[in-house]
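Contributing new records

If you add data, match the layout below exactly. Sequence lines come first and carry their own label; structure lines follow with theirs. Keep one chain per record. Anything else will be rejected by the validation script.
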Amino acid sequence: MKNILIVDDEPDIREILRYNLEKEGFSITEAVDGNDALDKVSKDLDLAILDIMMPGKDGYEVCRKIREQGNTLPIVFLTAMDREFDEVRGLEVGGDDYVRKPFSPKMLIARINAIFRRIDQINSKGTSICFGELEINTSTYIAQLNEEELHLPRKEFELLAFFMSQPNIIFRRGDLLSGIWEEDVFVVDRTIDVHINRIRSKLGPYKNWIETVKGIGYRFRPKI
């Protein structure tokens, strides 16, 4: 049974989420604000649903602190903030998905299940891919550079794995979106750019291995 952490300062929202998620067979842990969420983050969790506008630490700060700890827990932002800027910021701090309020419980559950399916697909491959000093293991979800572990949230890991499994091939943004996100999940092209920029920032001297092909998209081109 997968354990989902619900973080929201509105009791009604937590009740709606708990009711619908428990009907689908999920185990639920609740947190009433950002500090409470950080106290309850553990290895026993499989995913977090995180509000942004909360007293004390907001959702962005909570997500940032989780990622700073090297925790790859999938995080879905659930918020009334509906500007593209807010969504991009959520992705930049390490979120995996972004759902706007008011929301459809069925749609939210579909997107949560899509995340779990993607994780299971990658875990089932159980392969190691290596180029020079850059290595990923799709069984353990660990990426290493020069034998140092890279802290990559799920979507960043999945994108890097997608690239490394198909080197030197040019992918349009649409190819990457359909390869990493489910077809029924709406995300903008900017989502890809944000994730790729975050991956590049962690690859250090190897950041140019992910090339921008002007007017087309991206490719992974290891220079070894």
